[in-house]
Amino acid sequence: MRDTWETAGPPAVRDGGRTAARPQRGMVITLAVSGLCALATLAFVLAGSGGDGFGLSVALGVAPLPVLLAAVLVLDRLEPEPRLHLLFAFVWGAGIAVVVSIGLETAGEATVSALGMGPQDARTVTMVAVAPAVEEAAKGAALLWLLWRCRHELDGPTDGIVYASVVALGFAAVENVLYYSAAFGVAGTAATVATFVLRGVLTPLLHPIATSMIGLGVAHAVTGRGGGRFALIPLGYAGAVVLHGMWNGAAALNSPAALGVVYLVGAVVIAGLVTVAVRERRQLVTGISRDLPAYVPTGLVTPEDIGMLSSPRVRRQARRWAGRLGAGRAMSDYQRAATALAALHHRAGRDARVSRRFADDRDALLAVMAASRAHLVIRSAVPPRTRGCSATPALALPLVGPGE
Fold first, then answer.
1. What confidence score (pLDDT) does residue 77 get?
2. Of 45, 84, 165, 391, which has the highest C-beta tally within 10 A?
């Protein structure tokens, strides 16, 4: 095994901290279907707007994504989510959620019109009442899928916020392309840019803010206790619909005062979501300092490592150092597995289901930590030091976890 580590590195670990496994077939199939839905929607835009309008609309729809995704993912940087799961969430929002929403909103507007409302009134009712209910349900369905098939990846409210926001950003990107192309068809580039300023610059977080309410409910269903923990899912959905409807209503009124109120509410919600994420991160850092010292006798953790794991800045320094040695993945695996071990202790204290499989999950994480450390030792004879914190394990280490 030593030769294998020297050439290929340690066993890969998922971002959640467990050893890598074959992706779920259902997730891969759903990801493919969602991707086809997104492509079909974009093909529809291309057919309706032509090459110039399509190119401009897609460019403006994608432009804010790097900044917005980075802002969301930084909330969970100590224990990042698996990339496949994040991709699944984004593509679901961009594909299935968009197609389902278009179909149901079209049917909803037709139903409202059939009740005797004029075209303008029917559009307003659809915008304010039907669209928020349909779109939040379509986006929230991705979170229910994760709850059903990947509940082990939902460790707390931050995970719920992250997954919900990624779904919502995928949805918003494609929805914005539809709006931009429609504006281009009516009044050309100037109208498209004006629509971009309104949707892509002034209100880029509308969808993530609203859908995060569902994410909090789904996360509580995983981490809470008692049968009542599932009650927060419909409550979160109701909150998402209300927030979404408030914005659409203010836009329909075209009232600066109404828009100001909605912006204020949005700012308060964002502050609350960030507070939740920061509080959970502090709990995780506390768990690292509290629970990992018990593993010092195994040789898999040193006091200096605990300091490194508790600081995002020093973690980055450690990864950069390891990357120069060709062992960047090993350092990332070590950090993620050690962080997941601390999170496992926290979850085991509040969830009997986690407690029952605690030993198996703990041993799997320790095995990843041991393999990663062994690979780092092979790559370097002398561990670097950064302000008193070692960025790599000590040298005299076992090559496997305790008891193996």
1. 84
2. 165
